[in-house]
Amino acid sequence: MSGPSTADWSGVRLHVVTGKGGTGKSTVAAALALALASHGKQVLLCEAEGRQGIARMFDVDPLPYAERRIATGLRHEDRSPGVVHALHIDAESALLEYLAMYYKLGRAGKALDRFGVIEFATTIAPGVRDVLLTGKVFEAVQRNSRNKSATRYDAVVLDAPPTGRITQFLNVNDELAGLAKVGPVKSQADTVMTLFRSPRTAVHLVTVLEEMPVQETADGIEGLVAAGLPVGAVVVNRVRPRDIAAADLEAALAGGLDTARLTADLKEVGLSSGDGLVDGLVAEAHDHAVRRALEDDQRQVVAGMGRPTYELPRLPGGVDLGGLYELAAALKHQGLP
Amino acid sequence: MTKSRPRVGPLAGKPGPAPEMDVDALIDDRGIGIIVCCGSGGVGKTTTSAALALRAAERGRRVVVLTIDPAKRLAQSMGIEQLDNTPRPVAGLRTNGKGNRKGGGLDAMMLDMKRTFDEVVESQATPEKARQILENPFYIALSSSFSGTQEYMAMEKLGQLHREYVVGGVYDLIVVDTPPSRSALDFLDAPERLSSFLDGRFIRLLLTPAKGPARMMTAGLGMITGALNKILGTQVLRDMQTFVAAFDTLFGGFRQRAQKTFELLQADGTAFLVVAAPEPDALREAAYFVERLAEDDMPLAGLIVNRASPVPSGELSADEAMAAATRLRQRDPESLTAGLLRLHADQSRIVLREEQLRARFAAAHPQVPTAVVPALPGDVHDLAGLRRVGELLAEPS
Predict the structure, then answer these.
(1) What are the helix (H) ranges across chain B?
(2) Which end of chain A is flanked by fewer CB atoms within 10 Å, N or C?
(3) Which residues of A touch B195 (CB under 8 A)?
(4) What string of pLDDT tens digits covers the 337 residues of chain A?
């Protein structure tokens, strides 16, 4: 694993985490929230369009549309940890809240619902859904006098839609441009974009060291840059252990591992080398060496992207709550945040 | 007096393994004209669709595969580089009869969502009206970014392909990939959502000002249009009203088409394959989908678990391997044997976890035939790679 990175994330208030489907972006978002919540910090972890992934990862009841305290942050250098809060954002509730907050539309809000307007606005009207979801995230980052009693957060982590959709999702005013050229929704989108384009936001991309996700990461970065959105780190997830020496990997590939040595070692620790154990280990070594070589190629490609890069180990037992803290510690150790 | 009775039913014992799916029997079945591959994002749906289509073609079927958003190299491997909504022949098939069957063929295409929508409008409306709709800002936004348009258009294209080619005898099998949606269910929900939108009160509300007598609707109406104007701006509402008014006569046609495609999916000639990876989220999504298909009377052919980790050989358990590795490392921290034992332990743990996840799925859905496909080290770049995936799909695991 690489040493601490020199990138400075202290100015970032909103961490957006995206990644190709299946790369573990929600896991990384959760680990990042835990890592941010060290040293007494208050952190909000948001999920938009999710299927209650946060609740499952933290083993709590399904989250309502309300901020809930869900975990204690990562303990770091013996200082008291902070708190991770979580919020499940759904577009319908966000719209009703928005109407109530800005237009005092108590009764009309209900009428809108009866006429199917809420459903229309949140599922069919192009772009409106994303404006609502990102608008709520914006509100959490920029807490102001309209929401007096709410917690002020030191950082907000958004478990965002996958890489293929991230630029469209964040670039809300572009999405609306063809539709609403003026009007409150348009100015709301503009305000949100000002935050998203500022250095106070960082969009992190999660990948695994395989060709397709790495390619998608490169395409994602390109799209974000073109839209003027700030690209943060590349987080490489599920990295295979790298404790076998390069020379041994080469030998494994070439079929030249010292089997006599293996047999002797196994015998020493009381394992019978019968039953094809040695052959099995050699075959597994070969498979591992093939995959490691492919990973190394992709690691080169990721390095070529020129972004601060962080690696997280593959957890053979799967990711449970303990695993999340382990990953959080790995991020913190490497300097994120 | 109590008499002990042997326990029967689900509690009687451990659930057996899921029945194995016979992929070749499925693609050889001439009664099957449509195979739909669905599942959550990142599980290898597109690759699976392409591999199945190739295998079917090389076994003598005349196949068209509809992909949604293929990775560049996968598209290149099939020779489809433009997104032009037209099926293109895939070159390099082995259909010479040497170890394969003659008569097969494969065309591939990529879905162009907006083009498909435009075509439907053009086919349903007079040229004058079609132009009016196609130029409407609301329509442009709707057809290029409505969350659900892609799903709906994938279904629409499937219906079209079936009407134009299968009924016409050009193809005898359509393999469909589904969009990488938020949820796999979106694919099934899209037509319903569209028609509830078209039938909805909201549409009638938008139409009201244009139609005199209905004006007397409710007192709430003014409040609502007022609110909408306040939020969206008057221009948006005007665009929407123009769109809805122009589109009004097309609604019936749209609804009918969606309904027909839905029925096509329910028919005996269709088979759904649910694709998943051996991960909790992907399998949970697969479970939702399996249940939903059953609710909607959609024919499920089976579950494909992609990217299964290779099973380590031998009897050595993870714990034994770790204990041995620790002892070897005490003497020599760099010990290669220890490193290999640790790999073996990791691999055993991963495989065990994946097996448990699959067993849980099988316990809850014991009727679902399953095919397990081992993870390949690299990506698929060419037809040979797709062929290899096809072989792995068909091999009994």
Answers:
(1) 23-28, 45-58, 72-77, 113-124, 127-135, 137-145, 149-161, 186-199, 201-207, 220-232, 234-247, 251-266, 280-295, 318-331, 336-364, 383-394
(2) N
(3) none
(4) 444 567 899 999 999 999 998 899 999 999 999 999 988 899 999 998 777 889 999 999 999 899 999 999 998 888 889 999 999 998 888 888 877 776 666 666 666 676 667 777 776 666 677 888 888 999 899 886 566 677 889 999 999 999 988 998 898 867 666 667 777 777 888 888 999 999 999 999 999 999 989 999 999 999 999 999 999 999 999 999 988 999 999 999 999 999 999 999 999 998 876 768 899 999 999 999 999 999 999 999 999 999 999 999 999 988 999 999 999 999 999 999 8
Peptide bond into A337 cis (omega under 30): yes
Neighbouring C-beta atoms of residue B12, cutoff 10 Å: 9
**How far apart, in Å, are the Cα atoms of A229 and each of A28, A102, A109?**
20, 27, 33
B374 in contact with A, Cβ within 8 Å: no
Output the CA–CA distances (angstroms, integers) from residue B115 to A132, B156, B354, in the order listed. 28, 12, 41
CB distance A41 to A10 below 8 Å: no
- Measured CA distances, A241 to A71, A199, A281, A294 (Å): 29, 34, 16, 14
In chain A the first and final C-alpha atoms are separated, in Å, by 16
Choose the closest CB to A117 out of B40, B202, B236: B202
Name the nearest CA neighbour of B32 among B367, B302, B275, B267. B267
Alpha helix stretches (DSSP H) within chain A: 25-36, 53-57, 91-103, 106-114, 117-119, 128-141, 163-170, 172-177, 184-196, 211-226, 246-254, 259-268, 277-303, 321-334
Contacts A182 to B, Cβ<8 Å: 233, 235
Give chain B's domains with CATH numbers.
Answer: 23-190+262-312+368-394 (3.40.50.300)
Which residues between 244 and 273 in chain B have a beta carbon less than 8 angstroms from any beta carbon of chain A?
none
Strand order in the sheet with B173-177: B88-89, B105-110, B62-67, B173-177, B34-38, B270-276, B300-308, B370-374
Closest alpha carbon to A156 in A15, A3, A312, A291: A15
**ipTM rounded to 2 decimals:** 0.88
CA pseudo-torsion sign B22, B23, B24, B30: positive
Strand partners, B109: B66
From residue B109, alpha-carbon distances to A268, B32, B53, B381 in Å are 60, 20, 12, 17
Q: What residues in A contact B334, CB-CB < 8 Å? A: 245
Structural domains in chain A, CATH included, are 14-93+124-243+298-334 (3.40.50.300), 246-287 (no CATH)
**Of A112, A241, A291, which is closest to B227 when you measure between CB atoms?**
A112
What residue has token string 């976890």? B353
